[in-house]
Amino acid sequence: MGHLGTQTLVLMMLAVLPDAGLSCPHPCACYQPTEVHCTFRSLLTVPAGIPKHVERMNLGFNTINRITESSLAGLRKLELLMMHGNDLHSIPNGVFRDLMSLQVLKVSYNKLRVITGHTLQGLSGLIRLHLDHNRIELIHPDAFQGLTALRLVQLEGNHLQQLHPSTFSTFSLLQHFRMSTLKHLYLSDNSLTTLPRQMLKSMPQLENLFLHGNPWTCDCRLNWFLEWSTQSSGVLKCKKDKAYASGQLCPMCSSPKPLREKDILDQQDLTCSGPVISSPQKETTPEDNESEVLPLEEFKEPFGNMTLNLMDEHGNAVDLDCSIREPRESTKISWEHINPQQIAANISLFLDLECPIDRSNYEKLWKLIAYYSEVPVHLQREIMLSKEPKLSYRYKQDIEKDAYYYTGVKANVRSQPTWLMQSFLNLQLNRPQSTGKMVKLILNMHTSQMVETEIMRRQRRKWVMIESNNRTRTVQSVVAGGMSEMDCAVQSSDDVSIQWMLPDGSKVPAPYYSSDNRVSVSSAGRLVIKAVDHSDAGVYYCIARVREDLDMLPFRLSVEESSGPPPGGEGGARLDKLAGEVISCPVPPLAPQTPRSTGSCQMAMW
């Protein structure tokens, strides 16, 4: 074949396969038919004419400041997308809807501020997500829902101040357990002061966690983290840095002042302190400065309920109506990916049952179940007793498993949720925590669930989160007669219900106005107390609820005595300070025939 014939053949091939050489978008370079390279081209938008068969595309180091729903439409084979080093301020919903093959997305070094529950929609195959060095302040708690292939999230160098317990969960089990498939999580160099307890519990497969460079508040809210780090040895990683004597930078305390720049993991038994104004005339003791805070679990609705009609072969019988508390720490959840569309999960669940009992039944119950405080009674499901209106089953003791302790225990069981009534139940008396009025039992059962990932991606979780950042004043010290304001700023996926629990345990909804108008709560959640009295001191809880979620934020208020305003003055000056900082209150000069005034000031600790 001559030279002219060769040229003709090449032109014919290009005509048949137009994407092979003629469809590279201007001004990009396409060194391979499935690759598009567009770095350092001063692009303002994603270039037009991207071939549909492209698998790898690099748009890094441009000035792209706008991306539309059509910018990446139809790129169903794209596996790698690099958009780092641009000027993106936001990502519209639906931009990634066609990128079901994408495995790596890098949007580092942009100016993103918020990641919503729709930002990443469509990325069902995403494995690695790089969002580091943006300006991200908020990640909606359903942002990663359905991204069950996700293993790495890089968020270093953002402006995060708060995380929801479910922020990184990728799928749910039994409509209750929100789990995360992440193995690598980078949260260093943000503005985080604490972490929610449940967040890391949802990540049993986590291998690497980076937290250095955050202004951690080392108080009682992080005690759980010390326990977790011991149980999950080696997961928390430090940054190698020769500038430090140890040769590495680990998470360090930023406050309180005595613990500043000390390694978090070197601490033990962290405490929470209330506000205090000290003076030479008043000695402050540690006991004055301690303030116990109720955990979030205290405000949650019961996990469920269970009715137990128990009997044994000796004629003992007792009926119990029990509330079920949140799952115990000993609960274990594991899973494996059967295929990209299915996850097989196994759950070993341990639950606390709280069962009120009167004195007449106490002795009967003790005779029936006292044997089973060291080891559980193993119950096997026998027959269905009823289907409507409520499902119930009869259980009998498993004689093979309980050959040593066997008393012929039988139980008629009805529960909500109904899936708790598995084929086998283990029931054990919690003797140390039981009383004559409340018997506590430990229920253990095993169950499994097959998760359909496509269905999971379509579901949207409801969530609520009370803002807690460096502008939130959760600790206040107010002079008697002054006014206290506590702001409870709430973000949620749906209409939210807000209420405050006062130090005496009473609860008031939003909006609320007391009969004397001294205490009020706005519809947005702001609590105002006028003419503050010493009886107002204590811990206040803002509680926000949606149907599937709850959040709580405690506020501490202390009330200080005042000898009254200085002569000729209207009242004390207001001072705003960070916790641990020193304040000075003006003290008027001695007046004839009068004792020295201690001055008047109101302190708000941030």
UniProtKB/TrEMBL annotation:
Domain Ig-like: 481-558
Listed Polar residues bias regions: 272-283
Region (Disordered): 272-291
UniProt xrefs under Pfam families: Ig_3, LRR_8
InterPro entries registered for this protein in UniProt: Cys-rich_flank_reg_C, Ig-like_dom, Ig-like_dom_sf, Ig-like_fold, Ig_sub, Ig_sub2, Leu-rich_rpt, Leu-rich_rpt_typical-subtyp
Signal peptide region: 1-23
SMART domains: IG (SM00409), IGc2 (SM00408), LRR_TYP (SM00369), LRRCT (SM00082), LRRNT (SM00013)
Lineage: Eukaryota, Metazoa, Chordata, Craniata, Vertebrata
Annotated GO CC locations: plasma membrane
Keywords: Disulfide bond, Leucine-rich repeat, Repeat, Signal
Domain of life: Eukaryota
UniProt-recorded name of the protein: Ig-like domain-containing protein
